[in-house]
Specification:
This protein has about 325 residues and is α/β, with parallel strands linked by helices. The protein has twelve helices and ten strands. The protein has three domains: about 110 residues, no CATH class; about 140 residues, no CATH class; about 55 residues. About 45% of the residues lie in helices and about 15% in strands. Helix 9 packs antiparallel against helix 10. The relative contact order is 0.09.
Length: about 325
């Protein structure tokens, strides 16, 4: 019996005469259809189909399909379907598309085909924009993880196509993760979303590896209400926060600087700036000078220093520190 979910897709990678071993990232062919391996796989697939039929779901089986246009037709049907449960069996290892619903992933060659698998991919671009505006980089990392290490462990993600026309120069996934991590650190440090990262986010969460730079730029300009600009920071690695940038140090790059009014969730650096601002104001330094020197708005000074009891900096700092401590490094994803 499947779990009670609204509009979910059970996505299965399966080829009748091939076995894919995710541990070794390799595929081998079965020639004997009477072999125990082949019969075991057929039994698993039959059980899966029976469960979906019992729950009244739709089933699309393309395990022996060689026609990509037929697959595209089925994908469009799934996107438009109002059925709560859909089973889609595909033999396309390079399938990368948005189904407009959460996806539970299965590899038919796993030892245990757990129909209550937690291998869930549930992402959309609206969430990412919301996370950017509220400065929740940890949530962005988790969503990237879903695609790279849940979806991407069964289906192949074309890294070369993903980074096309960006400033990323990498050959494989882990190299890209390192640079994404740096760009998210820059977002925390300077509140700048690099143009190269914006392209990756757009292509990943719209499931569109062929998206053009112009379309990406237009989307982020409208969504964040900012235009991309050219930035260059000297001695970027000489900072007190411990950030280290291998590809942005003393180099110019394009990016979007997020306005203060769009940021509702504080980060550790902002907390430190509020502390410094309080000390400067106690020394009778003018609020305008403090604002310009620390790159924080006068409204934020009013809110977090002169605000009411619920917005006193002590409470604010305590909350921010708790949130900041939950940051997860992308380095951990490779372990």
């Amino acid at each position: 019996m499947f779990r009670d979910k609204n509009k979910v897709l059970y996505l299965v990678y399966f080829e009748f005469n091939k076995i894919y071993d995710p541990g070794n990232m390799s595929t081998f062919v079965i020639n004997d259809q009477n072999s125990s391996i082949y019969l075991k796989r057929k039994k698993k697939l039959s059980e899966l189909r029976n469960n979906v039929e019992r729950d009244g779901g739709e089933i699309y089986d393309l395990s022996d399909n060689k026609n990509l246009s037929k697959e595209s037709e089925i994908v469009n049907k799934i996107k438009k379907s109002n059925e709560n449960i859909i089973l889609f069996i595909t033999n396309n290892k390079k399938l990368f598309t948005n189904f407009n619903r959460p996806i539970y992933l299965f590899n038919i060659d796993e030892e245990s085909l757990d129909l209550n698998s937690e291998e869930l991919v549930n992402v959309n671009m609206n969430e990412i924009i919301s996370f950017l505006k509220s400065f929740q980089t940890n949530e962005i990392k988790q969503k990237i993880y879903m695609i790279f290490f849940i979806y991407g462990i069964i289906f192949e993600l074309d890294i070369k196509l993903l980074i096309k026309d960006t400033a990323y120069e990498v050959k494989e996934k882990n190299e890209l993760i390192d640079l994404i991590n740096e760009d998210l650190d820059l977002y925390i440090f300077k509140r700048i979303l690099t143009s190269r990262l914006s392209i990756i986010l757009y292509r990943l969460f719209f499931f569109d590896l062929n998206a053009k730079k112009t379309a990406v730029g237009r989307f982020f300009r409208n969504s964040l209400n900012v235009k991309s600009e050219t930035y260059s920071f000297k001695n970027l690695n000489n900072n007190h926060e411990g950030f280290y940038f291998t590809s942005l140090e003393n180099k110019s790059f394009r990016g979007y600087k997020i306005p203060f009014y769009q940021i509702s969730l504080p980060d550790n650096i902002f907390v430190e700036k509020i502390k410094i601002a309080k000390k400067l104001l106690k020394l009778n330094v003018k609020k305008k000078i403090v604002s310009e020197a620390l790159e924080i708005s006068e409204d934020e000074i009013d809110t977090h220093i002169y605000g009411d009891d619920n917005l006193k900096p002590t409470n604010y700092i305590e909350t921010a520190n708790k949130m900041y401590s939950k940051r997860v490094s992308l380095e951990q994803w490779k372990e």
